[in-house]
Amino acid sequence: MRGFSEKPFREKLTVDTRRELIRFSPWAKPEHDMLLRAEDDRVELRAASDDTVLESRSGIRSTYGGYDLTSPWESLQVGYFIGYAMWNYLTTPFLFTYPGVASREVEPWTENGEVWRRLHVVYPQSLATHCAEQTFYFGDDGLLRRLDYNVDVNVGVAVAHYVDKYQEFDGIQVPTRRRVHRRNTDNSASENWSIGIDIETVTTA
Questions:
Q1: Running DSSP on this structure, what letter comes out for residue 27?
Q2: Closest of 121, 150, 124 to residue 137, by C-alpha
Q3: What are phi and psi of 89, to 5 degrees?
Q4: What integer is the mean pLDDT of 182-193?
Q5: Is residue 112 helix, strand or coil?
Q6: What distance in Å separates the CA atoms of residue 34 and residue 76, rounded to the nearest whole number?
Q7: SS3 60
Q8: Both ends of the chain: CA-CA distance in Å?
């Protein structure tokens, strides 16, 4: 619906954990990379061979205005969406300690016979994220199970996002499978997922 490939695709992501900077290799074509500089609200298509900027878009977040659920996106708009999302996913929960981020525990939630503690998180405008207020669910082992948000750049659609299949990389527990479901008005998740993310390996530097 967004004008991008429906087939699974593989990417190498290079993430700066202190700045909202992320690079995808390749992007759309083998000879292209995509760089998101969220702090500048800018996306760049670059030549993988010499890093030349081939195409760029500033003020990218404002470009989703007036779209509906079936409006096609340009390649750089897809890149912005996936880029800020993956940066958020890969820096959580360390992201909660960043300047301007506030959190508080709210009432627990029971699902699949488990009781999950919930954390309500509010992000500052300086961070690109799905929406300013999100809720995170944690199991007895302290690991994330689910996160809820509304996708501002996608007409505010309500989402229940599940994570599992944790693996340890350089001493950090990372969920290697993510499945994104629509969220119903009773806070339950729809049966079928709409976005799937599988992480093969993680290396820290």
A1: B
A2: 121
A3: -60, -45
A4: 96
A5: coil
A6: 8
A7: helix
A8: 37
**Pairwise CA distance, residues 112 & 24, whole Å:** 36
Task: Tell me the pLDDT tens digit for each residue of 35-71.
Answer: 999 999 999 999 999 999 999 999 999 999 999 988 9
Tokens matching residue 21: 């900077």
Task: Please state, in angstroms and rounded to a whole number, the distance separating the CA atoms of residues 101 and 115.
Answer: 25
Task: Supply 18's token pair.
Answer: 């202190």
Alpha helices by DSSP H, listed for 41-137, are 75-91
Q: Can you say how many angstroms the Cα of residue 127 is from the centroid of all Cα atoms in its chain?
A: 12
Residue with tokens 């405008």: 125
Assigned token pair, 182: 């629509």
Indicate whether this model's pTM tops 0.90.
yes
Element (H, E) at 81: helix 75-91
User: What does the alpha-carbon distance between residue 83 and residue 127 come to, in Å, rounded to a whole number?
Assistant: 12
CB atoms closer than 10 angstroms to residue 130: 23
The answer to whether the beta carbons of residues 53 and 43 sit under 8 Å apart is no
Q: Which two tokens stand for residue 59?
A: 């003020």
Distance CA 67, CA 189 (A): 24
* Phi and psi torsions of 13, nearest 5°: -110, 130
Strands across the sheet with 53-58, in order?
A: 12-16, 21-25, 32-37, 42-47, 53-58
For the chain, give the number of residues. Answer: 205
